[in-house]
Here is the input.
Amino acid sequence: MLAREATKADIQAVRDRLREAKEQRQLDIQINQAIALVNRNHRRKKYDAERLSAGSSSHSPRRFTA
Here is the structure.
C-alpha cells in the first residue's frame, strides 16, 4: 500500500501493531531476566551446597597420626 493511499484507520492499525510488538519485546526481556535470575539462584544454591558438603569433610578437625 502506498503512503498516499493509506487511511487514518490504516495508519492507526500500523501504530497498534508497532505498539503491540514493543510491548511483546518488553515482556520477552522481562521473561528472560526472570529466567536468568532463577538460573543464577539455582547455580548459587547448588554451589553453596557443594561447598558446604566438601567443606565439612575437608576441614575436619581430626588429624591422622602414623
